[in-house]
What we know:
Blueprint: E1 20-21, E2 26-28, E3 36-48, E4 55-68, E5 73-77, H1 84-92, E6 99-104, E7 107-109, E8 116-119, H2 131-141, H3 149-159, H4 175-188, E9 193-197, H5 205-222, E10 225-229, H6 233-239, E11 242-246, E12 253-258, H7 267-271, H8 275-287, H9 305-308
Parallel strand pairs: 5-10, 5-11, 8-9, 9-10
Antiparallel strand pairs: 1-2, 2-7, 3-4, 3-6, 6-7, 11-12
Helix pairs in contact: 2-3, 2-4, 3-4, 6-8
Amino acid sequence: MNALQEPVDVSGRRDKPKARTGAAGTECAGTGQAKIELRNLRQVFYVKNRGSRKLEEFTALEDFSLDVDQGEFVTIVGPSGCGKSTLLDIVSGLVPPKSGEIIINGRRITGPALDRGFIMQGYALLPWRTVRKNIAYGLEVKHIPFRERPRIIQKYIRLVGLEGFEERYPNELSGGMRQRVAIARSLAYDPELLLMDEPFSAVDAQTRETLQDELLRIWEKTRKTIIFITHSIDEAVLLADRVVVMTASPGRVKKIIPINLPRPRTAADMRVSADFPWITHSIWELLQNGGSGEERQLPGDGRSVAGEIAPDTVL
Length: 315
């Protein structure tokens, strides 16, 4: 199978049955096979221009539609200001869209709920709580029985490699360790969906690569559905089953690139992959001046990029 296939059409408009009242933060609705359905999302903000008292409408997202399957790892890239973080705010239920709908497991999202975990750039740890007690926070909110919490907490401390640091406070941890605590806290209360907004952007390059490998290892074990925002094309391709490329503001889906690189993956594997630079460059072209990237498409007969490069080709 090719590492890079023809991008998928994701307009995905289809009529929905009338909504029924559901659980808190959701409404029941008809659904297809996708776990997450984002339908024609539009988001606007009202801003005041310099020297004017009049508020003007700024459109952050326009007609954004996307389906995400159960257990899928989807990354999203796009120009700064194209509405990537706004999209996650909407999917989390923290901010309602101006129009459009978000459906998860057949239920229309109308507010935040514990079926979604949100991991941000800034860790958002409680500074007065230890590692153990930060991870316990979601369990407390979800009212997990007290006697079950130590086992769950220790399971995720072990999963993210923080054994021996259970009683440390956030100010006693490195940036990478703090982000591991944030990941463990989100996983511990077992959300169905993880939303990750540039979670590794604040750490150094070496730590970032380590965290990418850790996240891939954790995803292989848990198979959580993940939507991951990043500015790094390399990171997007390394992690994803599909990469969503957005347009400049107002943000729309420009193309979706299926990533069929073999799993399990590591950052080191990608450095010696012939397909990896081909895919990343194709996405880079999409982000530059409206480039189509189509000249970088692989042939449809299953051959790899390495097989397409002649021995005398100058790279």
